[in-house]
């Protein structure tokens, strides 16, 4: 690195007007290198990357951002306004342990959630204290201690630093959400999806959120539209309790109806043929509910937001084909795909995706 504080790093070059979209996608894919300043070259932006995108990620970037190039660029290192966990731990850990430090932290209100790799087992408390030192708004640090359960979407955590309090208030796009992350599912990585879907809903619609959790989709919609009815269903009693609190907190009680129970049973009992739009954010099991989602739509049809996991190669096509086949089996048809995108990585070569489809 020279005296001008620049060095050659991997970067994404794209049209300047696509900059906001690029930053959103790169953060979701954990590709953005925040230690360098974003640069400009004529009408192009230069965005620093942590690594080379995979083929699937590259396809997504091209589909979303148009004319892009990836190569080496001279980028300016940002000055340290605060230490990172790497800075705090550089004299305490071996090089291979430093290389294994988590590059991202999920922050829900005052709670930080990280994944501790095998190389750092036994050092959870050390890492947790470094997270507290470098994130002054975090009061509790949790380490993931198991996968998310398919039905109630709960995950086991270990407290590795801080107060140990797991209930918090998370703010997102002007809405406030009370949640205990050990009792109800909430992912800050889906904030852009909550915003994207809510923005599509039109006045007068009836929406069914089949797996509502504490209400991030339902409440975002209700805060933006005055003439809507959203039926928010969840099997988890604790999630429904927080959903009811969040309905009061955000003053949308005239638009959001919380319903506790299995979505299949609830829809068959009282919601068949009522919906203009369905949200199916249960990626591990959404395929099992496509038939009842079709049942819930009005006779003339409507829109479904279908979330699922798919693996390389061509995960988007796999997800679209999966939805189309399930809709056909349910006696309807997927008239057209309105939108599909990778939301985030789920595992090596596996992705969380969404398909928005018009069903007739």
Task: Give a written overview of the molecule.
The protein is an alpha/beta fold and 360 residues long. It has three domains: 6-76, Alpha-Beta Plaits (2-Layer Sandwich), CATH 3.30.70; 85-165, Met-10+ protein-like domains (GMP Synthetase, Chain A, domain 3, 2-Layer Sandwich); 187-359, Rossmann fold (3-Layer(aba) Sandwich), CATH 3.40.50.150. The chain is 29% helix and 31% strand. Helix 6 (191-200) crosses helix 7 and helix 9 packs parallel to helix 10 (290-296). The longest helix is centred in the C-terminal third of the chain and has 15 residues, at 315-329. The protein starts with 5 loop residues before the first strand and ends with a strand. The model has no long low-confidence stretch (mean pLDDT 92).
Secondary-structure map:
Blueprint (H helix, E strand, L loop, with lengths): L5 E10 L3 H10 L10 E3 L2 E5 L6 H11 L2 E9 L8 H5 L5 H5 L6 E3 L2 E4 L9 H11 L5 E5 L12 E6 L4 E6 L2 E6 L10 H10 L5 E4 L6 H9 L4 E6 L2 H13 L6 E5 L2 H9 L5 E4 L9 H7 L5 E10 L3 H15 L4 E14 L2 E10 L1
Parallel strand pairs: 6-7, 11-12, 11-14, 12-13, 14-15
Antiparallel strand pairs: 1-3, 1-4, 2-3, 5-6, 7-8, 9-10, 15-17, 16-17
Helix pairs in contact: 6-7, 9-10
Q: How many individual β-strands?
A: 17
Q: What is the level 1 CATH name of the largest domain?
A: Alpha Beta
Poorly predicted ranges: none
Measure the end-to-end span.
59 Å
Quick structural overview:
This protein is of the alpha/beta class and 360 residues long. It has helices at residues 19-28, 55-65, 85-89, 95-99, 124-134, 191-200, 216-224, 237-249, 263-271, 290-296, 315-329, and strands spanning 6-15, 39-41, 44-48, 68-76, 106-108, 111-114, 140-144, 157-162, 167-172, 175-180, 206-209, 229-234, 256-260, 277-280, 302-311, 334-347, 350-359.
